[in-house]
Input
Amino acid sequence: MNSTVNTRASIPYKLLIDGQWEEAVSGKSIPVINPATGEQLAIVPDAGTEDVDRAVKVARRTFEDGAWRRMDVSKREKIIWRIGELIEKNKEELGMLESLNNGKTYREALSGDIPPAYDVFYYYAGWVRKICGETIPVDGDYLNYTLREPVGVVGMITP
Output
């Protein structure tokens, strides 16, 4: 097994909320186990309702502040694209971690899971410039248009 993965097994990871690494409010953690061997891969915080509420409040505050919304589209595009680049650059390590985490083969994780992960960031980086309004013809001396803007915060639970 990769020595990088072995050393991670004993590291207690934290939640990233408002730019700070923090423990779960409950103080509880969850061991991440390799389903093929039963070996512990990592220890992660057991985020609960209070942790999610804190993260959503920070996201809402950040959204209301408007820094991302007011950022030049070229900067937003580069940030999203860069995430894709970092995933692609580290695909071997991420493929190994994904394989260990869910029990599928390294080859399967590397070819089936990691490319869609970086591709989605490349795809949405391009959409930064494509989300725009339209003018709609109407009767009379009027200008009718749509303006698409972000409307809020999304909380997601993903496997």
The radius of gyration is 21 Å. Residues 1-65 form one domain. The mean pLDDT is 88.
